[in-house]
Write a structure and sequence with these properties.
156 residues; alpha+beta; 5-stranded antiparallel sheet; 5 helices
């Protein structure tokens, strides 16, 4: 019994540290991907696949921006994240550009108290995933939280 409690506490602490470290890395820009090579450098199927992915990404980001409120759009363009309010609880969540553990639950001061991860099935572009997360939290928050993986509470 004591071992399982100790392991549980250790898991929470490690999760909180990991969430805090990942958030700081994202905010600092460390570890960002190298830009994709220019299209003319590729030939044949590689070029077609890259073009397809870039096109999907651009369409997804365009659709996401169309669905964001003016405030959310300005916030996203400035900081690469935007805030949404949960439909049931009124809690505030911050959705970062990305697909895995890219959602933070915020306290009243705007500090992260937990990291969340839930994504739609299938291989989707980042903008499509973020839009699905926004819609889920704003229209059916409780259903989204039931399926979400959660790390928290996060250390301040």
């Amino acid at each position: 019994m004591a071992v399982s409690v100790a392991l549980g506490i250790l898991a929470v602490l490690l999760g909180a540290c990991l969430g805090l470290c990942c958030r700081r890395l994202v905010q600092s820009g460390v570890g960002q991907r190298e830009p994709l090579p220019p299209l003319p450098a590729l030939r044949g199927p590689d070029r077609e696949e890259l073009y397809r992915r870039r096109s999907a990404h651009l369409r997804a980001i365009t659709l996401l921006r169309e669905w964001l409120s003016t405030t959310q759009r300005e916030q996203y363009e400035r900081t690469q994240h935007f805030d949404v309010l949960g439909s049931a609880s009124g809690r505030r969540y911050r959705i970062y550009h990305g697909t895995q553990f890219n959602i933070e639950e915020l306290d009243v001061d705007g500090d992260a108290i937990a990291a969340l991860c839930f994504v739609p099935e299938g291989r989707l572009a980042v903008g499509d995933v973020m839009l699905a997360q926004k819609i889920a939290l704003e229209t059916n928050e409780m259903a989204a939280l039931v399926v979400a993986n959660r790390i928290g509470p996060l250390a301040k």
